[in-house]
TrEMBL record, chain A:
Keyword annotations from UniProtKB, A to Z: Nucleus, tRNA processing
Annotated family: Belongs to the TRM6/GCD10 family.
Region (Disordered): 280-336, 382-474, 575-613
Name of this chain's protein: tRNA (adenine(58)-N(1))-methyltransferase non-catalytic subunit TRM6
Compositionally biased intervals (Low complexity): 284-303, 314-334, 401-416, 439-465
InterPro entries in the cross-refs: TRM6
Compositional bias ranges of the Polar residues kind: 304-313
Main location: nucleus
Compartmental location: Nucleus
Automatic annotation (TrEMBL), chain B:
Keyword Methyltransferase attributed: yes
Taxonomy, superkingdom: Eukaryota
InterPro entries: SAM-dependent_MTases_sf (IPR029063), TRM61_C (IPR049470), tRNA_MeTrfase_Gcd14 (IPR014816)
Similarity comment: Belongs to the class I-like SAM-binding methyltransferase superfamily. TRM61 family.
Biased amino acid composition, Polar residues: 253-264
Start and end residues of each tRNA (adenine(58)-N(1))-methyltransferase catalytic subunit TRM61 C-terminal domain: 70-334
Residue stretches spanning the membrane: none
SUPFAM superfamilies named in the record: S-adenosyl-L-methionine-dependent methyltransferases
Pfam assignment, any one: GCD14
Name of this protein: tRNA (adenine(58)-N(1))-methyltransferase
Record's compositionally biased regions (Low complexity): 360-369
Length: 613, 388
């Protein structure tokens, strides 16, 4: 490890500690059984459980302690699992010349084989290994010698499948779990194929520290896959609709530890929408108060100047100034409102990304200082704090913002004598205890390894209650989450009409958030895409389908697989990125062409795609 | 800044000086821009000052300085967006292959992955995202300049500590000794990956994953042979492509016997916003329905004629004419893991084929009757004991 940077080495060591992935199968783990690379199934390893492997039922309890990824061969009579301790090459040698053909081959079925099934059974009972039986079958076959080498190998492989059973024990991954589900009951996951699943995860930018909004109607497969990628960092909000809780069984099947499952919280869509509404209302209220304060402050200042100067200015003279300031401040908001109502009237999709109204107005204001002032005034839980307009400052990093927030709060304490909540830093580096009752909930949303070990009482209680670390998010948590902004969104609920659900979900996302929608049907996605393109509610819209083909690679016999084991379709994916609500435009703004769909790269301007201004 | 970050405060992420911003002009024009307080961005619509961008939330639409009247959107970078805007020093991997690689290499936070060659760093960003925050990516390129440029990009994007970019000819020298036994996964995009298989075998821990991307089938064959000879199992090769669809609202004529008029109407209306047209269609349909309901014979006939304009408008999707035919074959394999003898050989009994169903149900009952907490909580139909 000498050449590895110290930081990386330390990081690797640290990774081992909280997320110790043991190399052997433990009781309670789920394991993917891979038979010959052909048949895959998933099983829970319990002391007394049974599982069907090949033609036999075996006890899965004996697998406890087996190394992950190892392979066992079933004895011919199915009585024992024999460990495969050395790797043997399976690809045959390259064959240059093929001198035989099947011109004289007569398929006489069972008469071509000298051994009877009774003979074979006797051999099996006498403890002969599977390989010996196959050799015997070959030597007793009338047609074997006449086959080409390729055909001989194929024959041997077929017999091997029948008389020996090879079982590999694989660690479940999102790909492997999806493969099993796609193979056994694809309808349950709406024909979501593993390559489509992987594409969803990549396009939605799901990783550690994501704050993902997920509508999963695929038996919890998406939830499990997201949690796997997040590994305890970030928040995964599993949204249920119509009063039904989202399915989360996939979380167990991936052997996710408690810390990894801790990112999950559940909520009904209506709860999330109501939390967003409360946030918006508070933002509006706060902005009104601020405007009032600005006016009052300007009046005060001017009075002070008037009193201080030798030429006393009449007090009423201040009012025009204040009045002038007021419409100016109100103007951006008014224009904003007009745009929204205009959009509504046109019948297009009106989308405001989850930005508090205060911030939306700030977008309209070009002056960065005012923007920073507004953000600093919003406390962690989204409640407004009355605050003076701030002095000019440079752009702040996140840390500076925290410091300024604290400074302001100290100032405010002095001025108004009110008790202020001290915001807790939410950065990963900080590992602190709760400052007040609200903080544990805050920290639960963003679990860090260090914080986890300090003990989250609610978290542990939830886990012990058997809900395994997934719990229903409280209204305050939802507000906090919406305040920070979801930065990733996956919708895999094909029964929900796409355009309608996007109309409800997109406003809950932060601006510049990638979102993906999966459906086995193309039409609803296409209609949603057309609607979003017209309303300019999202950018970089794309409707795609993933096509995957496996190959057989053997010396002299390489070709794509004959049977499309990967199925004719893996479903369709609509992807896009949200945008912030548009501010007022300078008069006579120029049309730059559609801000919507992306064609196949070179697709020119399609007729009729001039977006609305 | 390219990877998802923990929230440092309420409110959306704001653009800061030094940030990488993806500037969106239109669906054909997106560019990477590093925000500099003195920087300027110019396109054919106008001139933009970077300092106008600082403090705006990502996802904002910003306007250029007068007298220009243009605008652009400022998007937050992701690994996918970076792949689309990065400067191509080599042929790169796109999201279809990248997503398959990440999934099949089972890359999750904390894993250690080796990559050769770095190329333009397209895949490297996705590898970094997958193993962040406490994993590591060791990436190598045999071209000094490219290795340096990639390293500079990693640093600029906040990936220092997560990605180590080296200059090394992996085909000739293999991976460095100190990485032996350290890797959870290895990815190769090289002309002769079979030469690196022995070194990869030394680096990958048992149970780890291997992947090689090759455009040519001959390369794939040689790589598979090498994998088979050097302790890799479960060798599989596949290819993946994305088919993109273009969506438009089209006018289709319902009455073939009718004359040219509907055409003109259709064309005029297609110039308006699709949404507005849809709303107008609905209004017309409603009006027509109301008319028909209230009318007597002649009025009904007239209304019917007015209600059937001879065409309808539909949202239609059609595959794009521009389509990728092939990028490369992806070959995956697993590092062999030696099995150990198991404690008790409590094997099962052999069932004849006819007893399969009965046997399964018995297994299901037996398993469920154990009272295992997890079996009881099984609500998935895919596990044993649930009648597979």
């Amino acid at each position: 490890m000498a050449a590895m940077p110290a930081a990386a080495a330390a990081a690797v060591a640290a990774a081992a500690a909280p997320q110790q992935q043991l190399d052997t199968i433990q009781e309670g783990d789920h394991v993917i059984f891979d038979e010959h690379g052909e048949k895959k199934s998933i099983h829970a390893i319990t002391r007394n459980g049974l599982a069907k492997v090949g033609k036999f039922r075996i006890g899965v309890g004996q697998l406890i302690g087996a190394p992950w990824g190892s392979t066992y061969k079933l004895a011919v009579d199915g009585s024992r699992l024999l460990p495969v301790t050395e790797h043997e090459p399976v690809l045959g040698p390259a064959v240059d010349e093929i001198d035989k053909d099947n011109a004289t081959l007569v398929d006489a079925n069972q008469r071509n084989q000298g051994l009877t099934s009774a003979d074979i059974a006797a051999m099996a009972a006498s403890g002969k290994a599977g390989e010996d039986i196959i050799a015997a079958l070959c030597s007793n076959s009338a047609t074997f010698e006449g086959k080409t080498e390729f055909a001989q190998e194929k024959y041997k492989r077929r017999k091997a499948r029948k008389y020996t059973t090879s079982l590999s024990l694989r660690r479940p991954t999102s790909w492997g779990l999806c493969e099993v589900m796609f193979d056994k009951a694809p309808a349950g996951i709406w024909n979501l194929r593993p390559d489509s699943l992987s594409l969803l995860l990549s396009l939605a930018n799901v990783a550690a520290h994501s704050r993902t909004l997920l509508l999963d109607n695929c038996q919890g497969l998406l939830a499990a896959a997201c949690a796997e990628r997040m590994c305890g960092h970030g928040v995964l909000c599993c949204v249920g609709t119509g009063g039904k809780a989202p399915a989360l069984s996939g979380l167990r099947q991936l052997n996710l530890g408690q810390q990894q499952r801790a990112v999950v919280c559940m909520a009904q869509l209506t709860d999330v929408q109501q939390a967003a509404e409360r946030l918006r209302a508070r933002g509006e209220q706060q902005q009104q108060q601020e405007q009032q304060q600005q006016q009052e402050q300007q009046q005060q200042q001017q009075q002070v100047q008037a009193n201080g100067s030798s030429q006393g200015q009449p007090a009423p003279g201040n009012k025009p100034a204040a009045a002038a300031a007021d419409p100016a401040a109100a103007a951006p908001m008014a224009v904003d409102g007009e745009e929204d109502s205009a959009a509504a009237a046109a019948g297009g999709v009106t989308v405001t990304a989850g930005v508090p109204v205060a911030a939306a107005a700030a977008v309209a204001a070009v002056h960065e200082d005012e923007v920073l002032a507004l953000y600093d005034n919003i406390a962690e839980d989204g409640s407004a704090e009355q605050e003076q307009p701030k002095k000019k400052k440079r752009r702040s990093s996140g840390r500076n913002q925290q410091q300024q927030q604290q400074q302001q709060q100290q100032q405010q304490q002095q001025q108004q004598g009110e008790e202020q909540r001290q915001p807790d830093p939410q950065e990963a580096a900080a590992a602190v205890g709760p400052a007040d009752g609200k903080q544990p909930q805050q920290q639960q949303l963003e679990q860090q390894p260090e914080q986890q070990q300090q003990g989250q009482p609610e978290q542990q209680a939830a886990a012990e209650a058997g809900t395994r670390g997934s719990y229903t998010a409280s209204p305050e948590q939802l507000e906090s989450l919406l305040g920070q902004g979801f930065n990733s969104c996956i919708i895999a609920a094909p029964r929900l009409h796409t355009a309608s659900i996007l109309q409800q979900v997109l406003p809950l996302l932060a601006p510049s958030t990638p979102f993906v929608v999966f459906s086995p049907w193309q039409q609803p996605l296409a209609e949603a895409m057309a609607q979003l393109t017209a309303s300019k509610a999202a950018l970089m819209l794309q409707l795609q389908e993933s096509w995957m083909r496996p190959y057989q690679v053997l010396p002299g016999r390489t070709h794509p697989l004959m049977n499309m084991t990967t199925g004719g379709t893996g479903g369709y994916i609509l992807s896009g990125t949200t945008v912030a609500p548009a501010g007022p435009e300078p008069s006579g703004g120029q049309e730059q062409g559609s801000a919507g769909s992306r064609g196949g790269g070179r697709g020119g301007r399609r007729g009729g795609k001039r977006g609305r201004r | 800044m390219v990877l998802p970050q923990a929230a440092t405060g309420p409110g959306p992420k704001l653009i800061q000086e030094g940030d990488l911003v993806v500037v969106y002009e239109s669906y054909n024009a997106i560019k990477a821009v590093y925000v500099d307080k003195k920087g300027q961005y110019a396109n054919r619509f106008g001139n933009f000052q970077h300092k106008d961008w600082v403090g705006q939330p990502y996802g904002s639409r910003v306007h250029c300085r007068p007298p220009g009247r243009g605008w652009v959107y400022l998007l937050a970078p992701t690994a996918e967006l970076w792949t689309q805007v990065l400067r191509h020093r080599t042929q790169i991997l796109y999201v279809a292959d990248i997503s398959l690689v990440i999934a099949n290499l089972a890359l999750t936070p904390g894993k250690v992955v080796l990559e050769s060659g770095t190329g333009s760093g397209s895949l490297t960003h996705s590898l970094a995202r997958a193993v962040a925050p406490h994993g590591h990516v060791h990436t190598f390129d045999f071209h000094q300049l490219r290795a340096d440029e990639a390293r500079a990009e990693f640093d600029r994007h906040g990936l220092t500590g997560l990605v180590t970019g080296g200059h090394r000819n992996i085909e000739e020298q293999g991976f460095p000794q100190e990485l032996h036994g350290q890797a959870d996964a290895v990815f190769l995009d090289l002309p002769g990956p079979w030469r690196v298989v022995p070194s990869a075998a030394a680096c990958i821990r048992p149970g780890g994953n291997f992947c090689s991307f090759s455009p040519c089938i001959e390369q794939v064959q040689r790589t598979c042979e090498a994998l088979d000879q050097h302790g890799f199992t479960d060798i599989r090769t596949l290819e993946v492509l994305l088919r993109t669809y273009e969506v438009s609202t089209e006018t289709l004529h319902t009455n073939a016997a009718q004359t040219q008029q509907p055409n003109k109407q259709g064309k005029k209306r297609s110039r308006g916003a699709a949404a507005a047209a849809a709303a107008a269609d609905e209004a017309a349909a409603d009006a027509a329905a109301a008319d028909a309901a209230a009318a007597d014979g002649s009025e009904a006939a007239a209304a019917a004629a007015a209600a059937d304009p001879g065409f309808l408008r539909q949202v239609l999707a059609k595959p794009c004419m521009d389509a990728r035919g092939h990028t490369g074959y992806l070959t995956f394999a697993r590092r062999f893991v030696a099995a150990v003898a198991l404690d008790n050989g409590s094997g099962g009994s052999s069932d004849a084929e006819e007893e399969e169903d009965a046997g399964e149900q018995q297994a299901g009952v037996a398993a469920a009757a154990d009272g295992e907490e997890r079996q009881q909580h099984t609500d998935s139909a895919y596990e044993s004991g649930a009648g597979i």
